[in-house]
Design goal:
The protein has five helices and five strands. The chain is of the alpha/beta class. It has one domain: 3-Layer(aba) Sandwich (Rossmann fold), CATH 3.40.50.720.
Length: 164
């Protein structure tokens, strides 16, 4: 099980990340949840209880990311479940600033977390990236989401190749 293991869940204050943090805590892991919102983190820790700790982290900021891992220290598993505000308008209507901000969080955030987190992972540890079905199946208004998810999946494959 996960007894005596430290799991970091970025995006752990809600959604899939919260569910992962809850399950990991229930099976004995020490869990660190992280997100940009101190309020959401506080509420999540209150619901999760147990051996769950929270730390504010802005994965779009290089310094915030490096400081986070310096503070957390070594760990066993990193789960990244970032859900930014994603523009879902038509390709021609999406504002480039909104697409850029979402890409910075969803793709570059996962890239930064993996890059700066990997040196702190204990032997036999792991990194879990998240994307979504829009990487392989188109939906009206999801051009930005499709591109972000496909980029995350390509990143995952590339990171795997670096460690084979």
């Amino acid at each position: 099980m996960l007894t005596h293991r430290k799991i970091i869940v970025v995006g752990g204050s809600s959604g899939i990340g919260f569910a992962v943090a809850s399950k990991a805590s229930q099976v004995g892991a020490e869990v660190v949840i992280a997100s940009r919102s101190a309020e959401k983190l506080e509420a999540a820790v209150g619901k999760l209880g147990g051996n769950v700790y929270a730390q504010v982290l802005d994965a779009t900021d290089e310094h915030s990311t490096t400081e986070f891992f310096r503070h957390v220290g070594s760990f066993d598993h990193l789960v990244i479940s970032i859900k930014p505000s994603i523009p879902t308008g038509s390709f021609l209507e999406n504002a480039m600033a909104a697409v850029g901000a979402a890409f910075d969080a969803k793709f570059w955030g996962q890239y930064r977390l993996a890059k700066h987190g990997a040196p702190h992972i204990r032997p036999n540890g792991s990194i879990t990236f998240t994307s979504g079905t829009a990487s392989r199946r188109s939906y009206p208004g999801y051009s930005a989401v499709s591109a972000m998810n496909a980029a995350v999946e390509a990143l995952c494959k590339s990171v795997l190749e670096d460690y084979r």
